[in-house]
Amino acid sequence: MMSRLNFVVIAGVMYCLGCTTATESTSEQVKSIYTNYLRVFINSVDSLQQKISGNDTAVFNACFLAARKSYKAVEPFAEYYNPSTAKAINGPALPEVEPDNPDYPSPPTGFQVIEELLFPVYDKANYPLLLKEIAALKAASTRLEMVNENLVFTDAHIFDAIRLGCFRIETLGITGFDTPVSFSALTEIPPTLEAIKNYLGVYRSKTSEAAFARLSDLLMFAIEYTNEHPGFDQFNRAVFLRAYINPLTRQLNELQQAASIPFFKEPRPLAANAPTLFEPGIFNAVFYTGSHTDSGSESLVTLGKLLFNEQRLSVANTRSCSSCHDESKAFSDGLAKNKTFDGKRTILRNTPTILYAGLQPALFADSRVAFLEDQAKQVVENPDEMHGNLVNAAIELSKDAGYKNAFHNALGDTIITPAGIQKALAVYIRSKSSFSSRFDEYMRGDLSKLDSNETAGFNLFMGKAKCGTCHFMPLFNGNVPPLFNKIESEVLGVPRENNKPYVIDADSGKYRMIRSAPYLYAFKTVTVRNSALTAPYMHNGVFRSLEEVIEFYNDGGGAGRGIKLDNQTLPADRLNLTAKEKQQLVAFIRTLNDEQ
């Protein structure tokens, strides 16, 4: 039976479509539909505000879930045009730290904060706080409506927003990223897709009837599949992505091309014309450079590889980048912590792989630099690592005719400079993102690449085990989709040693750089790709195997093991994974090893 909310939304949209005139452009028609959805959303927040004053928990829980669903019809354009307001409505329930004001982190607001007050059990003692948070939600929704009055939609922006909305479903929606307590995520997918169907209905006359019918069918199939499989732990995300969402986003691209609506060409992390999230070459590593347009020729990659293996970058010609980033070990070193340059101590942290390091907006475990060029300089000149000097290295390499020729071929100049060395190293590292794993091939259509055990592991990763709420697909690191322009750090409560009594590791992480309480023991979320080849794990190398890592997460991180942490971002609740589920998780993670 159709819910009252869905009836109101659909009736309102149909009324809005009926009011359009021949003089309205397609973009104006879409804005009219969005405005109507926005009114429904604001009304649902009003209803939530009214119902919360009663004593019937079931009623205001239902109102809360209805308000969330109504927001999902608005979300594609709210996130696109008003990201800060969208965050106030549905951002993570974590404080936001401004680097220039670290002592006063901004408290979170919105649905996710309210959810934690209502679920799993409502405590009446939280009633004053609940009223305050709903009032903040109301203010944010009103702000969205006010800004909408002056928004100008264009066809290109509309398709861009809808594409990102689809990617948001498959990366965040199916994981329960923004419903971590109520587990209502899957029920919110149909309202989003229904709204997208109505938005795209405006473009029916812009393409062939067959092409539009195909798109409509794909939307309806995805909606029906989700409605027929509502169980969060049981939902087959592998099938949903491969059989429904990938064909849907590919067809969306075809509709845009048929309607002669251009794709945006400005530099982005993810190509604006990406037909799916799993196509080869859709990520743009040069976005993560200072200019966003730097290019790397094959000769520059070759030069970078030479320099990566060049011991003359270090003092006394004894260590190169490859000394710690060993290609035979997936560019890691197999050690908990490597030795310092003088061999007397160990370096501060575990050596990460360079694979996929080029697809990040922040580098090092504490996110202290933004660009690979700067990271290269810090590593080469760090007394504990290579203890070198790029100026001296440039002078030394200038004596080598082979290097002078290589620099000329790569950069058009025989003068070897520190900046040239940094650039070549950075370009080489950016070339190390092949997306050639069995998982990638499976998502591109080769079903033979994953067996049932491995797909079960993927479904656990993205569902019950909650790995995908921090290690975001398809990079499987902390780079937040669908824009991929911000990378997250998490407080996991990593212990000093993997035995009782568990004690927090002394490394304060991101707090070393930004002295703000939420960043104490916070570390950047690294990629899971190729992780089966890069043991040991965590910033201190405390866990020797994937099985140990999974056991740590299953326990609820440090807090779940008795470490007292007020700011742990990883939920302390046990995951209750079975022995078979843990084995399936490991099996899936192994499918993320690159074949190249």
Number of helices: 21
Average residue pLDDT: 94
The outline comes out as globular
Low-confidence stretches: 1-12, 14-18
What's the assembly state of these chains?
A: single chain
Structural class determined from secondary elements:
mainly alpha
Strand segment tally: 2
Task: Kindly state the percentage of residues in helix.
Answer: 40-55%
Key words describing this protein structure:
596 residues, mainly alpha, A middle domain of Talin 1, 3 domains, two-stranded antiparallel ribbon, 21 helices
Report on this structure.
- By secondary structure, the protein is an all-alpha fold.
- It folds into three domains: 4-204, A middle domain of Talin 1 (Up-down Bundle); 286-430, Cytochrome Bc1 Complex, Chain D, domain 2 (Orthogonal Bundle); 462-590, Cytochrome Bc1 Complex, Chain D, domain 2.
- Helices cover 46% and strands 1% of the residues.
- It has helices spanning 4-18, 26-51, 57-81, 83-90, 111-118, 127-148, 155-171, 189-201, 209-228, 237-258, 298-308, 321-324, 372-381, 390-397, 401-411, 418-430, 438-443, 452-462, 546-555, 557-560, 579-590, and strands at residues 489-491, 522-524.
- A two-stranded antiparallel sheet has the order 1-2.
- The N and C termini lie far apart (51 Å).
- Mean pLDDT is 94; it is low at 1-12 and 14-18.
- Residues 299-455, 452-593 form the Cytochrome c domain.
- It comes from Panacibacter microcysteis.
- It is found in: Cell envelope.
- Its main location: other.
- One of its GO terms (cellular component) is cell envelope.
